[in-house]
Amino acid sequence: MKVKVTEQGVVIPKELLEGVQEVEIRKENNLIVVITTIKSDPIFEMGMNPVSCGIPDASEQADPYIYGSGE
Fold it and tell me: Distance between CA atoms of 40 and 63, rounded to whole angstroms?
């Protein structure tokens, strides 16, 4: 696809950005790179919808419950 460069720059067609909320634009050597970015890191969403499992210290002592007691 070829597009004209205007005084304002280049417009990327919306159909190429379907579902994308944010992009990072970089110049690397002779290339212009457009990279879609993730607004929120999924790791920070862990624990947003906790379940009750009857273990009062599961969040503080997760490793022993996941990997065993180190036997």
Answer: 25
CA 63 to chain centre: 25
Other beta carbons within 10 angstroms of residue 34's beta carbon come to 13
> pTM for the complete prediction?
0.47
Whether the predicted pLDDT of 54 surpasses 70: yes
Quote the tokens at residue 46: 């862990």
Residue 39 half-sphere exposure toward CB, CA atoms < 13 A: 4
For the record, the structure tokens of 42 come out as 């999924």
CB of 19 closer than 8 Å to CB of 41: no
